[in-house]
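Team,

Forwarding the record for the chain on the shared tracking sheet. I've put the sequence and predicted structure together so nobody has to dig through attachments.
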Amino acid sequence: MRPTGIAFDAFGTLFDLHGLGPRLESAVGGHRDEVLAGFTARLVPWTWHATAARRYRPLPEVAALALRSAAAESGVELSADEAEGLAKGLTELPPLPGVAEGLEELDRDGHRMAVLSNGTGDGVRALVEGSGLGERFEHLLAADEVGAFKPAPEVYAMAAQAFDCPAAEVLLVSAHAWDVAGARQHGLRGAWLHRGATLAPVLGEEPDLVAADVSDLPRALREAAPRRPSARS
C-alpha cells in the first residue's frame, strides 16, 4: 500500500552528524574524532534516559551535556558555554549523500513528506531550510512539541496527526533500527536505510521496507509492497 505520508528521521538519516567535525576541531584540536565518537555514543541513549525518567529537556541541552561528558572522557575540558556553542552546530549539518536527489524523486512521484525529529521546532526548521531542502517537506515535526523523545508514542503520533491519516498509512524512514522498531510498535510502518550495514532487528521488529539510502528509497517504494505492521500502542 502506498503510504499517505512519509516521515523522515533527521539526525543520521537525512543529516550527517560528522558535520560537527570542524567545530569540534576548533574546540578540542586533535581530540576531535574521539570526542565526536563519544558524543554520538551518548546522544541517543541519553534521550532515552531523559524520556524514561520523565525529565525531558530539549535536544540542544542534552547535546551540550553529552559533548562535555565526551570531552571529559578524552581529557579535555569544555565549559558550559563552549559546549552550548558546539551544540548549535546541530542546526547547520550537511545532508548525507543522496538525500537531495532522493527527496526530489520522491517529490516527483507525488509523495507527501515530513521530518519527524528528536530536535526542537526552531532547530529542525533552521536545519532543513539552511540545507535548501525546506520545500520538500509538508511538515516539520519535533520532539519538543510533546516533551518526549523517540521512541515515546507521543512523538510518532505527531506524524499520523499531521498527515490526518491512520498510523498504519505513515511510513517512518530511518537509518536507525531502534527508530524503525519504535515506529512499528506504535502502528506506523518502517523503512530502514542500511547504508551498507547488516540488519539486527530491535525487539524482533523488522522493517517493512529496506533501501540502501534516501536516493534508493523511491525505487524500493515502487517495487515493494510493504506488509502491515504489528498494531501495538
